[in-house]
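Exercise 3.2. Students should predict the tertiary structure of the chain below and write it as structure tokens, then compare their answer with the key that follows.

Predict this chain's 3D structure.
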Amino acid sequence: MNRRSGARRPAPADPAGRARAYADVSLWLATSGDDLVAQDPLTGDREVDVAILGAGFTGLWTAYYLAEARPDLRIAVVEREIAGFGASGRNGGWASALFPSSLATLAAGASREDALAQHAAMRASVDEVIRASAATGIDAGLAKGGTVVLARTATQLARAKAEVDDARAWGRGEDDLALLDAAQARAHLDATGVLGGTYTPDCAAIHPGRLVRGLVRAVRERGVRAHELTAATRIVPHRVETERGTLTAAHVIRATEGYTPGLPGHERDVVPVHSLIIATEPLPAAMWDEIGLARRETFTDGRHLVIYGQRTADDRIVFGGRGAPYRLGSTVRLDRRHAAAVHGHLRATLVEMLPVLRDVEITHAWGGALGIARDWHASVGLDERTGLGWAGGYVGDGVTTTNLAGRTLRDLVLGADTALTRLPWVGHRSRRWEPEPARWLGVNAGLRAMGAADAEERLTGRESLVARLMGPLTGGH
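Answer key:
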């Protein structure tokens, strides 16, 4: 993705060396089956029909669907590093129907019917990711096993029951979200202390590195120019300025997610919050017989400070969570000391949940920045007057949402009035984050509060007062 830089930068003298460095980014890039050598850096000014900033899932899905619909369009994507270097190559590999804003929030800004349409579109998008991957010949290690959310304390179980009751009030049946008793939940994942949980079928475990590197190949095969090692310095109406030249276009699409604050004028659009992840060595069949996840379900539990995991196609556990502090000035670079501490905590949490993993080797540890809008509301849109489009603010739920964004941006760019362009997230404008240091204080207070809320519930056995008080800061989450 792209950050501001003051001078033009030559191509690296050692492309293979750069490829080895990219393989260190995450398990996903290391095992993507791609040589990770950057291709086609911009070599001067160009005029195109659509210029896209950021070669992650949002930018590549947008390019893919536009090229499929209109092969005559001149489409260019610019990327500071290589496609998938950002969140698309660093995430937990959940292609889920999760959307960061609740149905009640969506309905308050639109209508009940609109909110349910957004939810239905997210559910359908899980299947579209699977369909499009197959259509392009991408082996992304997909398995639509759904998601189990374990309740491991009485307060977590109460929240699970309340969530299912709320789903029923919206007309969502058991085929959408089911309440599990302890035995049913353990049948999915036999973790410690399980009292119950919920299950939704609307999630596929994927290998995001294979998907994103497959997508960049797919768009190039369809005539899209994907300019890697091309850092953008500024976007303005009808123009993307980079260190290597300027793209002039009728439409300019910003698809930079957690890297957005590095663009002049966009410093307060989102905050980059880091999610960190570890991966185990491949586990033997006997160990999986104890653990479960026979359908490769993705999993989490009902704590406030988010954790998440999946069983990979090569039988590892990939396990991640929040906890790394936000860095002053929206810096996306991880602090190594903090990252090591969070990775250690993740291992301890995983072993506490699944003691059979006590002696298992952790082979990979990484992290990346996700983007959070001030109201925790993802959005997509296109300003017809300026030609500037955008999508983002996924709050870590972007693997599927980016696909919906790409199809929606296709319709907006082509001027089509469709069911997608009428969804309530289209055209939503979040207020900006506070200036520093208020932003730093607020975001880190929220992160610490979620950890404190979990500790409070363990001690009191009651719903956390801290979590309720922090609700307005986290958009009700």
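Discussion points: The longest helix spans residues 112-135. The two ends are 28 Å apart (CA to CA).
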